[in-house]
Amino acid sequence: MWKEIVEGNECGLMVNSLDLKEIAKAIEYLLEHPEERKRMGESGRRAVEEKYNWEREGEKLLELYEELLGS
User: How many whole angstroms separate alpha carbon 4 and alpha carbon 2?
Assistant: First the structure.
């Protein structure tokens, strides 16, 4: 699920959380690419504002309830 969110919104890098070398490599990449880091941050913010917030999730939940109730 996380991979789909992160890669789908282009808002970060996916790494194996148990692989310290992979984590370090990702951190190095972000330090060496400030424009990419900024772009990913902006994409993440946009995703939260547009998709992953309680207002939007509430709308989806109400739509599901209406569908289940046949309204």
Answer: 5
Look at the block and give the residue holding tokens 């424009």: 35
Q: DSSP string of 42-55?
A: HHHHHHHHHTSSHH
Q: 3-57 pLDDT, tens per residue?
A: 999 999 999 999 999 999 999 999 999 999 999 999 999 999 999 999 888 888 8
Neighbours of 17 (CB within 10 A): 8
Tell me, yes or no, if the pTM score tops 0.90. no
Domain residues of the chain, as ranges?
18-69
